């Protein structure tokens, strides 16, 4: 009888292991085993996890440490988590995880053919931004048509978006939503859990470009230390219907979490962000990567991190050339260089022309001529009582600490071609040109100046 009882206990133990629960442990709860809830067959989560200060977590399969996961997988290092309130998910098949800022106020539900249009499938917020995302497996159609969905704020149907259902392909789809612009975009034809594209047929579409079926009838949601080898590069749609990539800076300053977005400079291909690096981590000194849309699969640079100095650093990125540059050793909020020790590193410094023509704002970039050290830009200078004498400076990276020349460069009102050599720092202009710097009808009407020749006549005006 005793042996029979032991056999029953053993069998129950095997059954429990076969249907193992998952637990979250960390510094926030003194490493106690907090049960996680299953979202689907291979995904568990725990929402609203509060870290009053930065700490660490691990995922424990049985709640007894016999099988636990962290950075580098099985029995890996602790996963760093910043202070804040987080929604934490773990993929039981791939052993990867997501840590996103807990949603407040509005909860965005994805409702569609994949879940019989029931509320409860919540989108995950990307850091502290206005962008949300969710990875969904669409297995087929329903009685009313193709695989499709809506986004329902707080779950009540009265304000669901878009007006007509958003139609997608069968399979894994990553859905992105901006709570301000209300733009929706998807990347489809992805591998399980939206980790990588299946084939070259993967594509991104936005709500502005979708021709949807008729509205449905209703009846009654990475630690960096070991970078994941693959993920996706999704695109979000801007409010004007043009798909726009969101560039995240992930590094030691934010424990490699997504959500620190770069700001686009005007309508150019250049983006920037001012970051305060307070130190390194267990893998090295202060450093970062740029991650298009968040997902790690297409981070830049591809190999190695961009190392920087401790302190305020201005990071600039060109989305066409993928050139990354930094200006470091700056004052608080990247206002100006602290001293002559300030430096710029990386390929392709973006040279801004700032002057009376653009109210001294950064963002008007000189165009590089081939792969040479020469840059140029055609600019229309106006004059007037409020503008004063037309003039400009050239500002490497945009921070004023190293703007050239020391005094403003004076020019004539009208079309001016500005040329700059990044090695010699020589500035030249050709002025009195026709529209868009086309050749003038009379060559005698045009004139040229250089920073060396014009030095004595340059006004000592402070940039506005």
Question: If you had to describe this structure to a student in words, what would you say it looks like?
Answer:
The protein is mainly beta. It is 5% helix and 40% strand. Strands 1, 2, 5, 6, 7 and 8 form a six-stranded antiparallel sheet that branches. It has a five-stranded antiparallel sheet with strand order 12-13-16-17-18, with no helix packed on it. β3 (37-40) and β4 form a beta hairpin. The longest helix is centred in the first third of the chain and has 17 residues, at 2-18. Mean pLDDT is 76; it is low at 8-19, 198-203, 208-243, 337-347 and 452-464.
Q: Categorize the overall geometry.
A: elongated
The number of E-state strands comes to 36
* Average pLDDT reading: 76
Q: Low-confidence spans: pLDDT under 50, at least 5 residues?
A: 8-19, 198-203, 208-243, 337-347, 452-464
Structural class: mainly beta
The end-to-end distance, rounded to whole angstroms, is 92 Å
Which bin fits the share of residues in helices? Answer: under 10%
* Computed CA radius of gyration, to the nearest angstrom: 28 Å
Strand content: 35-45%
Number of helical segments?
2
Largest sheet: 6 strands, antiparallel
List its salient traits:
464 residues, disordered C terminus, 36 strands, mainly beta, 2 helices, elongated, single chain, 5-stranded antiparallel β-sheet, 6-stranded antiparallel β-sheet
């Amino acid at each position: 009888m005793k042996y029979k009882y032991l056999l029953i206990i053993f069998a129950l133990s095997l059954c429990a292991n076969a249907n193992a629960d998952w637990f979250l442990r960390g510094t926030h709860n003194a490493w106690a085993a907090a049960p996680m809830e299953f979202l689907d067959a291979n995904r568990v989560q725990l929402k609203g996890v509060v870290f009053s200060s930065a700490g660490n977590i691990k995922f424990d399969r049985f709640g007894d440490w016999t099988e636990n996961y962290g950075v580098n997988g099985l029995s890996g290092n602790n996963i760093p988590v910043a202070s804040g309130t987080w929604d934490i998910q773990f993929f039981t098949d791939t052993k990867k995880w997501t840590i996103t800022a807990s949603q407040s106020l509005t909860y965005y539900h994805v409702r569609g053919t994949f879940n019989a249009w029931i509320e409860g499938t919540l989108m995950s917020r990307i850091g502290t931004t206005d962008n949300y995302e969710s990875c969904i497996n669409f297995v087929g159609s329903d009685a009313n048509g193709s695989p499709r969905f809506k986004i329902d704020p707080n779950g009540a149907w009265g304000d669901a978006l878009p007006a007509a259902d958003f139609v997608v392909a069968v399979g894994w789809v990553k859905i992105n939503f901006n709570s301000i612009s209300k733009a929706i975009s998807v990347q489809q034809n992805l591998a399980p859990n939206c980790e990588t594209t299946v084939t070259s047929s993967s594509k991104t579409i936005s709500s502005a470009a979708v021709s949807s079926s008729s509205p449905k009838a209703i009846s009654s949601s990475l630690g960096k230390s070991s970078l994941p080898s693959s993920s996706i590069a999704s695109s979000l749609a801007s409010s004007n219907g043009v798909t726009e990539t969101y560039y995240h800076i992930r590094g030691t300053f934010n424990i490699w979490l997504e959500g620190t977005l770069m700001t686009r400079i005007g309508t150019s291909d250049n983006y920037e962000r001012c970051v305060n690096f307070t130190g390194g981590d267990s893998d090295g000194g202060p450093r970062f990567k740029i991650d298009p849309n968040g997902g790690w699969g297409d981070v830049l640079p591809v190999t190695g991190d961009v190392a920087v100095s401790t302190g305020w650093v201005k990071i600039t990125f060109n989305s066409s050339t993928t050139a990354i540059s930094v200006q470091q050793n700056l004052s608080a909020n990247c206002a100006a260089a602290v001293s002559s020790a300030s430096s710029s590193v990386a390929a392709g410094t973006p040279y801004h022309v700032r002057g009376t023509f653009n109210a001294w704002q950064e963002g008007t970039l000189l165009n590089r001529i081939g792969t040479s050290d020469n840059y140029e830009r055609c600019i229309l200078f106006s004059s007037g009582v409020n503008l004063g004498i037309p003039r400009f400076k050239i500002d490497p990276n945009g921070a004023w600490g190293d703007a050239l020349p020391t005094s403003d460069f004076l020019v004539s009102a009208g079309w001016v071609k500005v040329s700059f050599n990044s090695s010699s720092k020589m500035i030249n202009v050709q002025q009195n040109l026709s529209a868009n710097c086309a050749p003038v009808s009379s060559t005698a009407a045009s004139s040229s100046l250089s920073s060396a020749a014009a030095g004595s006549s340059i006004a000592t005006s402070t940039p506005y």
